[in-house]
Design goal:
By secondary structure, this protein is mainly α. It has helices at 20-31, 34-37, 39-76, 83-90, 93-122, 131-148, 150-180, 203-218, 223-227, 234-263, 275-282, 288-320, 338-354, 361-394, 411-425, 439-446, 448-463, 478-483. It has a single domain (14-474), classed as Up-down Bundle (Amino acid/polyamine transporter I). The longest helix has 38 residues, at 39-76. Keywords: Amino-acid transport, Membrane, Transmembrane, Transmembrane helix, Transport.
Amino acid sequence: MNITNEKNSDSPELKRTLQSRHLNMIAMGGAIGTGIFLALGDTIHQAGPGGALVAYTCIGIMVYFLMTSLGEMATFMPVAGSFETYASKFIDPALGFALGWNFWYNWAITVAAEMVAGALLMKYWFPDVPSIIWSVLFLVIIVVLNLLSAKAYGESEYWFAGIKVITVIIFLVIGTATIVGILGGESIGLRNFTIDEAPFVGGPKSIFLIFLIAGFSFQGTELVGIAAGESENPGKTIPKAINTIFWRIIIFYLGTIFVVGAIIPYTQAGVDVSPFTMVFEKAGIAAAASLMNAVILTSVLSCGNSGMYASTRMLYAMAKEGRAPSFLGKLNSRGVPINALILTTVIASACFLTGLYAENTVYVWLVAASGLAGFIAWAGIALCHYRFRKAFVAQGRDINKLTYKAKFFPLGPIIALILCIIVIFGQGISYFDADTIDWSGVIASYIGLPIFIGLWSYYKLKHKTTVIKLEDVDLEMEETASQNSVK
């Protein structure tokens, strides 16, 4: 049973204004954030440089399969709702409903979390200014950028992400020079890879725990699929973004882990100080801490900016398809889903208020639910692609006519789905002990699952939906996609 919103069928569509360079930076910026600037030190401390390299390589391969899966569907059917629409068309409307709302609250909560983080960063320079002032200011900036147009969002994200990319490139150059002794006064070489328990610390369990952290670091790459609905030429820009961005991200992450692991002993790495700051200081660069604080602040604003964009587009798409109130499908004169933006801002602000004190249990649960929601979305992408390709063949279509074809099908989406499921159910492994179980930690780790299952069950029971047969899967947007393909 596929329910659509007929009232919105004649309403104006999102304007296709995002260019290739915007998509490239949206995908790049979505994956390069505090995970690389802050959390990387802790991952090396826990698993050693070798363990961190193994974990990030594995998760990178999974993300590659997910990106190519999303790319194949997004070039064929470029829509703002992306995998929410795909799940509804290719699998079951109930799954699409659950994935859509799951993705929306994921990024709405992320916006709130980034506002809290931004305020904490500003205390480095202005310790006496109340945090709420900075949080409100950052939220206003993000709302204004998203209110202007999709192009304004894309342009701001281009520059936000550009700062992060340039910082990582400079870091890799300076780090390499420090390793060989050009900077810092001595040749460090690779001796830190073999001190104490290095390169692998804590064995397979530590690598698995870092595998979970690595997954959070790469979340945001799927935003290129959401942006497809407003891309000028999806058939050309999406494949280019996917083929180039993935390898750049992998090189950046693995290169950064290698440099940090070589220069900073794993026993000294942690989350108190950015590993970038430690390396820059080792190279003799003055004001390294202030510089990295500014870069991390840029990263926080970038993530909040992307979160606002992604969540509003998802609400808009669900409203167009009857899985959200119809008023959320309204566009302003600049093609921005204005009501969806307002609602997301209100919810993000409410979540932010619970985070004024980081110890607040509700806030901790919100952030935990948001993190898990990202992996659920990834699992949905893998499942959607598997069903899409099977339905494509079952209906007698020629896969060679696809504008972009994912490699390694069906192995790719199957591996990605299995790894996502492992990550989802492995979230709380550190809270289970032979003697005691930290139930508070367990609840925080898995609270996203009952929320998702509740959304799915609600829609399933209300509308009595069933899994769509492969022969009945709706693939009728092919003409729209082909019109935007490379000619």
